[in-house]
Amino acid sequence: MTRWDPALLSDPALTGRSGPQLDHLIQALTPEGGIRRGRPPRLTFSDQVLATTLHLRVNLAAEPLAVLFGSSRTAMHRTLLEIRRLLDAQSITISPALTPPALLATLQARVAAQSDHPNYKIKTTP
Description:
Order of helices and strands: HHHHHHH
Helix content: 55-70%
Distance between the termini: 32 Å
């Protein structure tokens, strides 16, 4: 089993964006030059933007996102902070979903199947 299903996680019902809109968001946030010091991130920049979009749009916490993307919780926290900083710098807002998408149940099952921690629950937006 792959660590995540790109078609599921990038579904417009979850992200609030079509494929081209998500691609445009990724392009808008891509840092100039793209050169970073230190160890390269485990997730691609596109995956980092997607994870942050899910975090902001459907209130996914870092723990289940780490499970879904095959990352550590610490690395996911860092990713969320960094991408949120880039969003703020570009004055880009990702609005939360008004109602939880039905796909959250599918994600909850995926997290439960892939996680050693049964307490990693996907919370729904208020």
